[in-house]
Specification:
Elements lengths: L11 E3 H8 L3 H9 L6 E3 L2 E5 H22 L1
Antiparallel strand pairs: 1-3, 2-3
């Protein structure tokens, strides 16, 4: 059953789920984590990422893209 509402923002996602959600490779997710652009945490040997962190990353990328678009116009 899919959650709706504010709780959905704190859904815990795996790296494969995040890569599918963002339509990028797992390697890209690992690079973003290494560069500090996406924060993750470990549970045992498994890496997890909060959906709210992914949404924050998307918003940041959109702000940067909008800034670049207005500079080129």
């Amino acid at each position: 059953m899919e959650k709706e509402g504010p709780e959905m923002a704190d859904e815990v996602m795996t790296i494969p789920e995040v890569s599918e959600y963002l339509k990028v490779t797992r390697q890209t997710i690992h690079r973003l984590m290494k560069d500090g652009k996406i924060k993750a945490f470990k549970i045992g040997r498994s890496t997890r990422i909060l959906r709210s962190e992914i949404e924050r990353f998307i918003q940041e990328q959109m702000k940067q893209s909008n800034g670049q678009m207005s500079q080129s116009s």
